[in-house]
Sequence to fold (202 residues):
Amino acid sequence: MKLFRPMRGHGESDTDAALLRAVADGDAAALATLYDRHAGWLHARLTRRCADPEVAREVLQDTFVTVWRSAAGHRGGEAGGWLWTIAARRLVDARRVQERAARVETAPMDVLGAEAPSAEERVLAGLEFGDVGTALDRISPELREVLRATVVDGLTTREAARLLGIPEGTVKTRAMRARAELRAALAQLSPTPTPAPAGGPA
Fold:
């Protein structure tokens, strides 16, 4: 599958948020600028998680197709974390298709069943559904971005700092605050039940 061909029309001074607003308005040149800016590191991270170069290329392509279709849903700010979340989900989808095809080819029909979700799928799902997702929505956006970058995306402090455009020390500080706020939010959602009084009825 061919990748998007680079186009010009936007400069390096354009923020990701401005480019995404332009993409939401149907500006293909803005999408190409985002591609030029982010495709390299996205492809590098995908190839670390996927040994098949063709799958990595297809996932990268699918990521930017998704960006083209859903740019209006971006909440603003730098696009890196949002892009990687999309790419990681597309990679999960691609792996699921591959594994399902392999099972169909090799397994008897009576043993085919639903596959167990991978660790990455469980983490990504947890950030959208259930108590973790609810708690994550309750912490401040700048802390949530750092938590996604360092925990979900698995970025180092340096990579997260570059991605979010903040100093490494700020990443570390926000990561500690984010974990504390997340624990507090989870505690509010799932308070420890009051122990039953010792002894039974007289």
Notes: The CA atoms of residues 23 and 30 lie 6 Å apart. The chain has two domains: 1-83, 119-191. The radius of gyration is 21 Å.
